[in-house]
Amino acid sequence: MANGWTYQKSGLGLREDEFSWQGSVESDPRFFLRRSKDEPEKVTDLLFGELSDDTAEAMLAEFLRLSGGIRGKRLVFTRISRRGDSHDATVATFDRVARVGTNAVVLSGWLVDNRFLDQDGNHWNAVLELRRDVV
User: Fold this and answer.
1) Which of 6, 48, 104, 122 could form a disulfide with 61 if both were Cys (CB 3.0 to 4.6 A apart)?
2) What is the rounded distance in angstroms from the CA atom of residue 77 to the CA atom of residue 94?
3) Cβ contacts of 16-22, under 8 Å, gap ≥ 24
4) How far apart (Å, rounded) are the C-alpha atoms in residues 19 and 16?
């Protein structure tokens, strides 16, 4: 355990405080995840660092599982862009977050029915509407 982090075999580091769970990867100090304990449907930080999307998807899926799983019909990635950011930059960020989030959700046994940008004050959130994958 380094600085409160407990690392999994995959390389995902986990720690928690009274407000949130956090995830990191030892090999990339710029990759960071945070999930609210009060509102577990919200991922309040998603910083990709230099990880490939495939690796980020796997780390996000494992992080969601180890921090309580997917519990509801939505997963919200908060504050992915500011309202003042260019349309192109906002859409590019949304597309990547939605793609990585969707693939992580599918790895977790859920399906995404819809994904969209949602304005939240001066920021945009990426929202994934979910349902359980029933086989």
Assistant:
1) 104
2) 9
3) 16/67, 20/44, 21/63, 21/66, 21/67, 21/68
4) 8
pTM, full prediction: 0.93
Please state the φ and ψ torsions of residue 133, each to the nearest 5 degrees. -80, 110
Structure tokens at 26: 């030892």
- Local confidence pLDDT in tens for the 135 residues of the chain: 456 899 999 999 999 999 999 999 999 999 999 999 999 999 999 999 999 999 999 999 999 999 999 988 999 999 999 999 999 999 999 999 999 999 999 999 999 999 999 999 999 999 999 999 776
- Looking at the chain, how many residues does it have? 135
How far apart are the C-alpha atoms of 54 and 5, rounded to whole Å? 23
